Inverse folding.
């Protein structure tokens, strides 16, 4: 689906990329990716753009990026009623 919202690790795995390969494609360090995935670092706008481009997704489709950009982060839909 074009509008799927998934975490960074899931996008990385769906693209069959190792952390090192994703880091190289985005021009960031593997440590940066590991820290974003572990919620120890909030990504900068330039990092968000670079990783999104390397993954071929919109920044809004990555949970960690949505949080950093101030978008609502919903991991699961709740059933009402």
């Amino acid at each position: 689906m074009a509008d799927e919202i998934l975490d960074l690790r899931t996008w990385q795995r769906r693209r069959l990329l190792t952390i090192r390969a994703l880091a190289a494609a985005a021009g960031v360090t593997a440590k940066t990716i590991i820290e974003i995935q572990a919620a120890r670092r909030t990504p900068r706008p330039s990092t968000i753009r670079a990783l999104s481009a390397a993954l071929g997704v919109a920044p809004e489709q990555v949970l960690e990026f949505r949080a950093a950009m101030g978008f609502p982060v919903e991991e699961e839909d709740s059933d009402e009623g």
